[in-house]
Amino acid sequence: MNPIADDRPGFHLARVFATPWTGAYATHLDSALQFGKHWHDTFGMGILERGAQSWCSGRGQVRGYAGDVITLNPGEIHDGQPLGAETRRWRIIYMDVSTLQPFLPAASGAAIARPVIPDPPLFAAFARLFGLLEQWNASRSGVDALACEESLAATCTRLMARHGSTPFEARVPDRDVRAVRERLSDDMQSVPTLDELGRLVGLSRYQVMRRFQKVCGLPPHQWLLRMRAERARVLIRGGATLAAAANQAGFADQSHMTRAFVRQFGFTPGAWRRCS
Question: What are phi and psi of 239, to 5 degrees?
Answer without folding.
Answer: 110, 0
